[in-house]
């Protein structure tokens, strides 16, 4: 992994086609929420399939916790869609068939020249693609458990949401004065918009990346 991909740095804002072949920009998928990105070897890997089974079960918690989940794979469109459908996954799979991410992040799994895949990684992001945690999943036990992701997202959310503890008298006074800038999402957008973003529909995102 590139030496600058560390907590506190910004993860690259890649543009890749999704499982419907529509170009998507990571920052559009994230909006202003936390996000987990899974860089996967692909459908052939039993470790990846098992990890995704756990992520699919965990996904409903991510939705109510206002956290997006995105997979990036070097599989082709057909293989990625087969895996997504077999898993029952309702989050985007982005396709890196040209190995753009693999090469840019320097995560080519050189021990597997047959498949030319990425070394699996899981990246936990705060808003604005700010890196909170990086997991190297070359060995299965290097991948985060769902309990660890829960802990990471608790820490990340506590750091970025000023209204984490609304029992704080100062927060209550601000709310009573209708000063909602410190309250998320009330100070930045509507709850309706937030719930729409978490609904899982492909057309929810701000726009196609190829439309500017």
From TrEMBL:
<dbReference type="InterPro" id="IPR036249">
    <property type="entry name" value="Thioredoxin-like_sf"/>
</dbReference>
<dbReference type="Pfam" id="PF00578">
    <property type="entry name" value="AhpC-TSA"/>
</dbReference>
<dbReference type="InterPro" id="IPR000866">
    <property type="entry name" value="AhpC/TSA"/>
</dbReference>
<protein>
    <recommendedName>
        <fullName>Alkyl hydroperoxide reductase subunit C/ Thiol specific antioxidant domain-containing protein</fullName>
    </recommendedName>
</protein>
<feature type="domain" description="Alkyl hydroperoxide reductase subunit C/ Thiol specific antioxidant">
    <location>
        <begin position="8"/>
        <end position="132"/>
    </location>
</feature>
<dbReference type="GO" id="GO:0016491">
    <property type="term" value="F:oxidoreductase activity"/>
</dbReference>
<dbReference type="GO" id="GO:0016209">
    <property type="term" value="F:antioxidant activity"/>
</dbReference>
């Amino acid at each position: 992994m590139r030496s600058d991909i560390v907590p506190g740095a910004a993860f690259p804002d890649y543009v890749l086609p999704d499982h419907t072949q529509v170009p998507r920009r990571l920052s559009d998928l994230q909006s202003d929420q936390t996000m987990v990105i899974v860089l996967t070897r692909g459908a052939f890997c039993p470790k990846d399939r098992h990890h995704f089974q756990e992520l699919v079960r965990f996904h409903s918690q991510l939705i109510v916790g206002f956290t997006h989940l995105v997979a990036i794979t070097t599989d082709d469109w057909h293989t990625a869609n087969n895996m997504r459908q077999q898993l029952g996954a309702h989050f985007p799979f982005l396709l890196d068939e040209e190995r753009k991410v693999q090469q840019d992040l320097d995560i080519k799994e050189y021990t597997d020249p047959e498949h030319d895949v990425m070394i699996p990684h899981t990246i936990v992001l705060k808003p604005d693609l700010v890196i909170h945690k990086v997991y190297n999943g070359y060995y299965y036990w290097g991948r985060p458990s769902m309990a660890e992701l829960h802990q990471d997202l608790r820490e990340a959310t506590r750091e970025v949401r000023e209204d984490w503890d609304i029992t704080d008298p100062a927060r209550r006074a601000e709310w009573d004065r209708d000063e909602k800038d410190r309250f998320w999402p009330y100070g930045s957008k509507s709850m309706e918009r937030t719930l729409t973003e978490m609904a899982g529909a492909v057309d929810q995102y701000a726009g196609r990346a190829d439309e500017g």
